[in-house]
């Protein structure tokens, strides 16, 4: 079996992620363009103004407070004292090897094996480990998990996923405003002539279909982007450690665990989300696929 190059895997996953972001932008432009034709100038600018204001507020809050929000949502506490000395030592060693500043370290009280990273950039990053991960993983496996999370920090994945979430949210907002404004716009169009009504009816059908389908399409794209970033972080972790065995061991242990229960908003941040649902509806690739790829590196 041909061996995988982690450098090549990182490159391909980053390219795929940017292509998926391009698809989201195309869907957004198509939605705005169609709604502009259907509703006319006044409604078009109303959608843009409200959508832009809400999106700016969302991205500013998410960008500057993403780490604080994530930590607060899981009730994590700072990992302080000699009790977590190995945790600190492993992160410090990986940061020296990767050239990254040391992130703030937190502990989440949960018996399952899992971890996540958050923060807008390496200088404002945090890493959170569950108590179960610290208790059930050996040193090499723990180092593999930490290398994966530091890879998310190094690859600016949190910033990238925040951008994706903003685009997806904007499409959903615009779609909702459009669908709710149809009643009022139909009153004005009822005063037009019949020929205009026929052309407007066709555009209306297209607009409604696009407004309903666009949020679904981009949500699936968002999930695909999240899965690509997980593959890239796995590859980067191998790059940091020069060995995939630690992360493989950790993922195998997670595979034997029951799914960790967390808020849907922070679920994409975690190292893994075990489950039996179809891959296209998941934020993470199947553990078996991730393990198989790592075994080929």
Question: What is the chain-wise order of helices and strands?
Answer: HHEHEEEHHHHHH
Uncertain stretches:
none
Order the strands across the largest sheet as they lie in space: 1-2-4-3
Mean pLDDT, to the nearest integer, reads 76
Shape: elongated
**Domain count:** 1
Secondary structure: helix percent: 55-70%
Per DSSP E runs of 2 or more residues, the count of β-strands stands at 4
Annotation field: number of helices: 9
The fraction of residues in strands falls at: 5-15%
Report how far the terminal alpha carbons are from each other: 11 Å
Instruction: Summarize the biggest pleated sheet.
Output: 4 strands, mixed
Estimated radius of gyration: 22 Å
Defining traits:
297 residues, mainly alpha, 9 helices, 69% helix
Summarize the structure.
The protein has nine helices and four strands.
Q: Could you please describe the fold and organization of this structure?
A:
The structure is a single chain. The chain has helices at about 5-40, 40-75, 85-100, 130-135, 140-155, 155-190, 195-240, 245-255, 285-295, and strands spanning about 75-80, 105-110, 115-120, 125-130. By secondary structure, it is mainly alpha-helical. The protein has one domain (about 5-75, about 155-295). It has a four-stranded mixed β-sheet, sandwiched between helices. A hairpin with a 7-residue loop joins strand 3 and strand 4 (about 125-130). Helix 1 packs parallel to helix 6 (about 155-190) and helix 5 crosses helix 8 (about 245-255). The longest helix has about 50 residues, at about 195-240.
């Amino acid at each position: 079996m041909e061996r995988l190059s982690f450098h090549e895997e990182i490159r391909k996953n980053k390219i795929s992620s940017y292509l998926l972001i391009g698809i989201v932008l195309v869907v957004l432009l198509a939605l705005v363009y169609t709604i502009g034709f259907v509703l006319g100038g006044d409604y078009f600018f109303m959608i843009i103004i409200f959508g832009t204001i809400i999106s700016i507020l969302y991205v500013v809050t998410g960008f500057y407070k993403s780490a604080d929000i994530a930590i607060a949502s899981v009730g994590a506490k700072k990992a302080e004292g000699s009790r977590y000395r190995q945790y600190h030592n492993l992160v410090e060693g990986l940061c020296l090897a990767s050239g990254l500043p040391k992130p703030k370290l937190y502990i989440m009280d949960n018996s399952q094996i899992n971890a996540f990273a958050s923060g807008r950039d390496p200088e404002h990053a945090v890493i959170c480990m569950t108590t179960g991960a610290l208790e059930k993983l050996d040193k090499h496996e723990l180092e593999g998990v930490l290398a994966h999370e530091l890879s998310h920090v190094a690859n600016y994945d949190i910033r990238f996923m925040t951008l994706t979430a903003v685009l997806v949210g904007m499409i959903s907002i615009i779609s909702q405003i459009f669908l709710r404004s149809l009643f009022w716009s139909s009153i004005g169009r009822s005063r037009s002539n019949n020929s205009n009504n026929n052309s407007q009816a066709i555009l209306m059908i297209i607009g409604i279909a696009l407004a309903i389908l666009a949020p679904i399409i981009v949500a699936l794209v968002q999930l695909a982007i999240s899965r690509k970033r997980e593959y890239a972080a796995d590859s980067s972790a191998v790059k940091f450690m020069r060995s995939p065995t630690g992360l493989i061991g950790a993922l195998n242990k997670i595979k034997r665990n029951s799914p960790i229960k967390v808020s849907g908003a922070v679920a994409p941040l975690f190292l893994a989300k075990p489950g039996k649902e179809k891959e296209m509806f998941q934020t993470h690739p199947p553990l078996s696929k991730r393990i198989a790829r790592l075994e080929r590196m």
